[in-house]
Amino acid sequence: MHMETTYSYENIILQWPALNGGQEFTARAGPAGYEGSRLTVIKLAARVVDATRHCLKLTHLALSPSAILPRHHHFSCQAVLHSETQTPLTMAFRLPLRRIALARPAVARGFHSTPRAFVKAGDALPSFELFENSAASKVNLAEEFQKGNGYIVGVPGAFTGTCSTKHIPSYINHPNLKSSGQVFVVAVNDPFVMKAWQDQLDPAGETGIRFVADPTAEFTKALELDFDDAAPVLGGTRSKRYALKIEDGKVTATYIEPDSTGTAVSMAEQVLN
Question: Where is the Thioredoxin domain (predicted)?
């Protein structure tokens, strides 16, 4: 069965500057209410597709950058999504662009930053398949936290300096770790790298901390905790440094580093005490 559907979106907000002689435009899209301020045009399309896939509960997605075409005052893209039954659905997105009138001089125009809607207390965990130890071992944190309470600790990358020498060791060595419930460390890495990192930090497997991989950053993006500032060094989208307290499948407290990578609020001393 093949379907073609046109969607109209209202909520996702993207702003980018210096198009068409220095004018600024805003594109609005998406039923899920996501918000972003430093995204390229291609990443806007990816967010629209992500939002649609999440709403329709589709698990397999492909987006062709060559199909992303800005046309006059509209932005169009086409994505092919596959459901669990592998039935293809071709979805065309047509996003209205509206011009923004600015009082600022052109030299002052740049990215207009709007606050991102990070995960907050009361939010349910998004349901995605992550990987633990290998490509064959999948784990869904939304399901895991139906079995018990605990914490999710997000890091920018396995084997990176602060993550390896300070952040995760603060949890491994904390006296309250054993009484804190389940603890998962999540990074935008592949499962083999995460397994090797776990073996280095907890070689005997005595801590009970589980290291899981979010290789495509789907889970991280759903939490709005992704960032690209480290791309020149780490190679792409990464997770901010954070910790989330989870009870009954919902977030009850957030500890998100304001600069994405520091250790001001997400160390075990602040989270587990």
Answer: 119-273
